[in-house]
Design a protein that fits this description.
This protein has 135 residues and is α+β, with helices and mostly antiparallel strands. It has a single domain, classed as endopeptidase fold (from Nostoc punctiforme) (Alpha-Beta Complex). It has helices spanning 3-13, 32-39, 60-67; strands at 24-25, 29-30, 72-74, 85-91, 94-101, 104-109, 114-118, 126-132. The strands form two sheets. The chain has a six-stranded antiparallel β-sheet with strand order 3-8-4-5-6-7, with helices on one face. Strands 1-2 form a two-stranded antiparallel sheet. Strand 4 and strand 5 (94-101) form a beta hairpin. Helix 1 (3-13) packs across helix 2 (32-39). The longest helix has 11 residues, at 3-13. The termini are close together. The mean pLDDT is 84. It comes from Sphingorhabdus profundilacus. This is Peptidoglycan endopeptidase. InterPro entries: NLP_P60_dom, Papain-like_cys_pep_sf.
């Protein structure tokens, strides 16, 4: 299985996990960054993903800088592929991360209090997208 499909499958395996702000453990709950951190396990250490965030607008530069490092390719408006990391704007000054799969996007939904799979098209504007380098 290639790297991006592996990331997408790991994200799909998290669907149904409880939501918890700042969560990094599937038993206790995950937030959107926790979903990304666990889906990327083996490619980054989950503790490398920033923890002190609010995902408000001022965080855009910081999260972009984290994913713009050598392991990730910052993508423009190219076609999206399963395993891509998506940064969306869910409300003014409110950012949210998700992972693209062949059947939609996986993300931690605060309102539903769990990790969910949402069908495409995305319900929010896309403000950033990264792809893990490698096969």
């Amino acid at each position: 299985m290639d790297v991006r499909r592996e990331i997408a499958q790991r994200a799909l395996d998290l669907v149904g996990v409880p939501y918890k702000l700042g969560g990094r453990c599937p038993l206790a709950g995950l937030d959107c960054i926790g979903v990304v951190a666990l889906a990327l396990a083996g490619h980054i250490m989950p503790d490398e993903v920033p923890r002190d965030y609010t995902l408000r607008g001022e965080y855009l530069d910081r999260i972009s800088a984290f994913f713009d490092r050598a392991l990730f390719q910052n993508l423009g408006r190219e076609s999206m592929e399963s395993g891509d990391l998506l940064l969306c704007q869910t409300a003014p000054r409110q950012l949210h991360m998700a992972i693209l799969t062949d059947c939609g996007v996986v993300h931690a939904h605060a309102g539903l209090r769990r990790v969910v799979l949402t069908p495409l098209p995305l319900p929010w504007p896309l403000v950033g997208r990264w792809r893990v380098l490698g096969e």
